[in-house]
Write a structure and sequence with these properties.
By secondary structure, the chain is an all-alpha fold. Helices cover 80% and strands 2% of the residues. It is built from 19 helices and 2 strands. A two-stranded antiparallel sheet has the order 1-2. The longest helix has 33 residues.
Length: 464
């Protein structure tokens, strides 16, 4: 079926990515997000006491620990730019293998770090260094993982297939939360604080080896190979970062605006919830982790469903519902938490994660459809990772600081509503891209691939 959308003639190919492509991309991403989220859980529960014991209070120690948590977000745009450049010029697969190894090694290193009581300020300094390198690697992971799947699949179901690496985020968080919950339940408070938390980090070594082995069997998609072939034939030296900033500023700005609300919602639900329930409500750590575990299972199912819905209804309507629900959640979440009732807390968590899933599920396909192949890795990585500094990194710190300053949740609610208003404006300004063909985007940019490769991939949506 051929139609014209946003002044670009598109051909809707039928097909699905090979199972091994989906498995390799998603499995590796689950492992990397496990590594990233195990840090966030430890920052809320352990690091304030282990690495920042002289902060002055438990809440201030946790805020300091979240400061090191934010370092990983500061490194992510750097990783996104560097991995994006080489991912756009030499291939997606190679960069994904490197990102997995780097983040895994850093996670194991954190599990072996000495404490503040043992080596003083060197302990938090080493923690910051490991977190920075970990964030650098993760900054290059997301873009390559979602593109590896979406570029192998057909336009008619791109939202669904590209959402599987997205679902790796809650899957990684489930693993991280389950591991921490198990350790917290099977050790005493003193044992957990002394050595129990380290087991979760050291376990990453085995997971990384499995993920690396799985990723060895995959290859780059025909649309990327076609772009590489044209570049080699023309003898052009590409600069993806320069091209994105010069040729697609609107797409960058709207994507970053949409990312802001989604990412803020997620890290408020996934990270700050631990702090609020522990410090303000006084819920037992084991109970909080168990509630979060089941909420993340709901989230895991929600993400691919929302990706599928974006294929049927459009990217913008699905994300728009998510923004609206997130605004409702911002008003309702803290009164629900304050009840201290387990099921009410669970309902609040699920509401927030479903709202985020509506925004996040279509995001990989939507962002990838905004940029041509020669700069796609760089474009989506910058959109996602630069925004993560102001969203995922800043949200727990801003919320914790507001809570410390006002001893009330209302300022946090106002902050969240402002964020959702920004995202709503970005969504209104964005163009709908559902069903658009990657080769059509490249033709509109003048990046015409070899016709035999283009015809093959547009017809099947799978590798030639």
């Amino acid at each position: 079926m051929t139609h014209r959308d946003n002044d670009i003639e598109t051909v809707e190919p039928k097909g699905r990515p090979a199972t091994k492509v989906v498995a390799a991309s998603s499995a590796g991403t689950v492992i990397e997000w496990y590594d990233f989220f195990i840090y966030g859980t430890a920052a809320a529960l352990v690091f304030g006491q282990v690495f920042f014991p002289n902060a002055g209070s438990e809440l201030l120690g946790i805020i300091a620990a979240f400061g090191t948590y934010a370092v990983g977000f500061l490194a992510r745009p750097i990783g996104g730019i560097i991995f994006g450049h080489f991912g756009d010029t030499i291939g997606r697969k190679k960069l994904l293998q490197w990102s997995l190894l780097i983040i895994g090694l850093c996670t194991v290193a954190i599990g072996l770090l000495p404490t503040y009581d043992q080596v003083g300020v060197l302990a938090p300094a080493l923690l910051v260094l490991c977190r920075f390198i970990q964030g650098f690697a993760l900054g290059g992971e997301w873009g390559g993982a979602v593109l590896l799947v979406s570029e192998h699949g057909g336009a008619d179901r791109r939202g669904l297939w590209a959402s599987f690496p997205q679902a790796a985020v809650p899957a990684g968080n489930i693993l991280a939360t389950a591991m921490m919950a198990l350790l917290a339940a099977t050790t005493s408070s003193e044992q957990f604080l002394t050595w129990g938390w380290r087991i979760a980090f050291l376990a990453s070594a085995a997971l990384v080896l499995v993920g690396y082995y799985i990723r060895r069997s995959i290859d780059d998609a025909p649309v990327f190979k076609a772009a590489m072939a044209k570049s080699a034939r023309d003898g052009t030296k590409r600069s993806p970062l320069r091209d994105v900033l010069r040729e697609h500023p609107r797409e960058l700005i709207t994507a970053m605006g949409m990312r802001l609300g989604e990412n803020t919602t997620y890290y408020m639900a996934a990270s700050f919830t631990l702090t609020y329930l522990k410090i303000v409500v006084g819920v037992d750590t084991s109970d909080v982790l168990l509630v979060m575990l089941f909420a993340h299972i709901v989230h895991l199912v929600t993400v691919p469903i929302c990706g599928y819905l974006s294929d049927r209804l459009g990217r913008k309507p699905v994300i728009g519902v998510g923004v609206a629900l997130a605004a409702v959640w911002a008003v309702a979440v803290f009164p629900m938490y304050d009840t201290g009732d387990t099921w009410t807390i669970f309902g609040a968590l699920v509401m927030g994660l479903v709202a985020q899933g509506l925004m996040y599920g279509p995001q990989a396909a939507y962002f990838s459809e905004m940029f041509p192949t020669r700069m796609r890795y760089t474009g989506i990585s910058i959109s996602a990772q630069v925004t993560s500094i102001f969203a995922g990194a800043a949200a727990p710190i801003i919320a914790g600081s507001l809570l410390a300053a006002y001893s009330a949740s209302m300022p946090i609610t106002v902050y969240l509503l402002i964020v959702m208003a920004v995202t709503a404006c970005a969504l209104i300004a964005a163009r709908e891209t559902r069903g658009i063909d990657y080769f059509a985007i490249d033709r509109a940019e003048g990046d015409v691939p070899p016709m035999d490769v283009a015809a093959s991939a547009s017809t099947t949506g799978t590798p030639a």
